[in-house]
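Weekly puzzle thread! Below is a chain. First person to post its structure in token form gets bragging rights.
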Amino acid sequence: MKKIIFTALVAAFATTSFAQDIVKQMKGQSYSEATATLNGALSGLSAEQKAKGYNQLVEIVFPDASKAFETITLANMQKTKVEVDTYTPIVNALNEAVKCDEFDNQPNDKGKVAPKFRKKNADRLATFRNVLINAANETTDPDKKLFLANAYINSSESPLFAEALKAGDPYIGYAQFFAAAAYYNKENWTKAADYAEKALKCDDVKENAEQYLVSALTKNLKTKADTIAYLKRLNDINADKYMGQIASMYNAIGEKELSEKILNDAIAKDPNNKMAYAIKGENAMNAKNYDEAIKSFKKTVEIDPSWVQVWFNLGVCASSKGFDLNESLSSNGRISAENDAKVKDVLKEAVGYYEKVRELDPTREKVSNWPYQLRMLYNALGETEKANEISKMLGE
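Winning reply:
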């Protein structure tokens, strides 16, 4: 037992001795070698010793970072391209300096906080940070974009550069936006949403950040509760802008009264809210309440006569109403002349709507299938010449 205890004491002494000599061991090593040396010793180091180790990594990589900064600055002046890998020493220097500062500001063995490296590292690295922004913007590789953006974000959040950034960080919103874009491309929806939300504070990227935020939030919708939470979030972001989407999704999950209230409130606020009328029409159309749908769609095109899709929806509703009426008024495939006239009146109404689509969208750029619907109605009405004209137009 005594021998075992003695061996343990020797091992402990060796570890302590190794920890005290960590900087000496790292000197003369390459950055990667020194990183491995420090990582292998971290568990046995005090906060003060870790700070010295990370600072030594800064010392090792700084010459390469300084050279890279000069290369990048010259390239920017000459408007020439710089490969992303050129920024690696700068990123490494910033990351190691942030780690150094974290441990450098922890109490030492005497319980005092006496940072040794903050000023020097802040002074020599502060100007390096800004070059990361353009690089993060230009690269399309999500991993490289994150590599650059995260280094900028982490350094911005570190007390190390608090003095340099006391007036604010003018580019943090850009970096957060780039991180959001990278995480989105990597399908990490949670982090994409987190960074996009942070980037909303930057006016220059707010609109695009909002798109990433809204899209990322939709990716994790699995339950009704998820959807309700998402819709409340949309309401917080911009209730007016997303009114149509909010109302439609509430209707889709069975919250029809709430959907109707949102739409009616929007119309009360703005009687010419064409989107609210269009969504009311869609909700009614999906419920096969064609009369209500037609009423709302008519109000929509009264406000915006050029809205092709709504004219098409009017045609869908009127034709569906006509065919349903034909079925209800027929018996054993037969229909009276009086009832047949009623059906044809409704179908003719539908033709009028589709002809309006034809007028507004003759090349079918917005609604591709209006010719097929219109041809079907002309055939149903016995107007074969007009139906054949459409077939000829379609090359059939």
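Puzzle host: Confirmed. Bonus trivia for everyone else. The longest helix spans residues 47-78.
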